[in-house]
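Figure-free illustration: sequence to structure, shown twice.
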Amino acid sequence: MQSTYRLTLSCPDRPGIVARVATTLYEHGGNVLEARQFEDAETGQFFMRVVFRCEQNRDTLEAELDQLANEFDMDLQLHDTNRRKRVLMLVSKLDHCLGDLLYRHRIGEMDMDVVGVVSNHPQESLNLTTIGDIPYHYLPVGKDNKSEQEAQIRTIIEETNADLVVLARYMQILSDDFADWLAGRCINIHHSFLPGFKGARPYHQAHERGVKMIGATAHFVTADLDEGPIIVQDVEQISHIDSPDDLVRKGRDIERRVLARAVAYFLEDRIMINARKTVVFAG
């Protein structure tokens, strides 16, 4: 029986990479269904994503790809499309992003296994019916127990074998050590304005300054707060007739769709980290 795989790779750019990848897959019965590539002229790095179908035993295929990776000094990953990624979601009181992701999962739009929801607030404060039988972990956090609470979350991640952690409006700053441990597998969503408005009630601050555009950014989490590699951004025009409540409502809509796109790209192996940036082979 044939299996479908997604191959992602990055390496220093040099002639012959595409030819060698295609030849290797062909020689082992691979039929390429989709291929995208990008060469970063600034860094000299090459990036590629290939979707292919193959009857070859996975162990044999991986052995051949390992030889290819050694030859070209590649960071190479082989993903079986039949294996759904396992996702853990973190949330505080604002549940619009979590509710949107759970609904998309329920209707089959997002091919993932939600292994749990972690919150620093009790489940009753969310009032979400879409959680269903997904395990809910109420882990209160304060200045005196932050390290212990993060250790509990880390245990949940390890026990569930989560591939991705989504901060679906989780209003806690992760410690540097925790953020580093989650590098490349934790996505956050936050509002983004020009100029930037930090602290409480950012949409009200934006209204007071008469902004003409609001937006949101989904990015990988790093120890530098809200400065990780950007995955998806979107904006919406605002006018003088919009009230603070209008900005909040529109902002939530943008946050939902931006986070959903970023998570979908991760599930489909479309994101590759390129130093402080990302390469996103969007569909």
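We now fold a second protein in the same way, so the two outputs can be compared directly.
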Amino acid sequence: MNFIVLSLPYGFGALICRELVIRWKKRWPSLLLLGVAYGIYEEAIVVYSVFDPDWVELGALARYGYFAGINWTWGELTVHFHALISIGASVVLTELLYPEQRHQHWLSNKALVGCFVGILLWIPVMGLIMILDMERPLPPLGWYGLSWLAVFVLGWAAYRFPSQPLSYVRRTPPRPVFFFVLGLVNMFAFFFTVFLTADFGMPPLIVTVLLLLVLDGVTLWLALRWSGNGHSWDDRHRLALFAGFLGFFVYFCFDKDFERWEGASIIGLTTIIALWRLGRSVAHRVQFQREDRQSLQDNAG
């Protein structure tokens, strides 16, 4: 039951975000905006963890990150996670598995409506669970309403965002390992910044909030610069970037079992093997495409 309650909405969210991007004929910026909207929807509207100073996973963040009714750094952390992992990694890795369907619709109109209904039903289901837990306070109505507004504004922005927002830049991207390191450093730095600043109680909260925004800004700038504004890289680089993002969680699968065996390292090892096999498949496909293009050019010449 817990698996269904927690897992299905993630699938609904990823399917909805991808389908809207395809139907609107948009690209990665719109997917990123919809991922942020999903993160706000889950953490502020469904479980409202960003408003709860006693949320079970906060620890020192309850003292350090909570201001004016919001857990600010926790909110940044969870939205960052959902945008890049729950939505971004789910869509990107699935499209790498099925490249021939990358630009195709996966959902009929009825299926898309069904996904929306499913994800909206998450609110009353989780609300019932929260009601049974009488110690949990209700979210502040003002912030709750603004959260809904933020979701709609982000959805509208994703719809209105240009399909080609940045000009083509001819550039030879660095090897995929650089993108892997970029993703890995980003996720490690984000999580460690959030929890270490809370443990030490410094610097001031506003500094940490801005530092996290700068961290993601620099990561995005480097990814765009290396990839020629997203035009000069290929599937190997995309896979490497998201494997880097996932690497943080793979590491903690093993770290968790060092403290107490719960079998998490099996999940981590399975993820490594799956990413390695996908990486081999992607590398072979890219090589074949290169040889095919070279052959066409030679015949044309």
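Summary for the second example: Strands lie at 66-67, 70-71.
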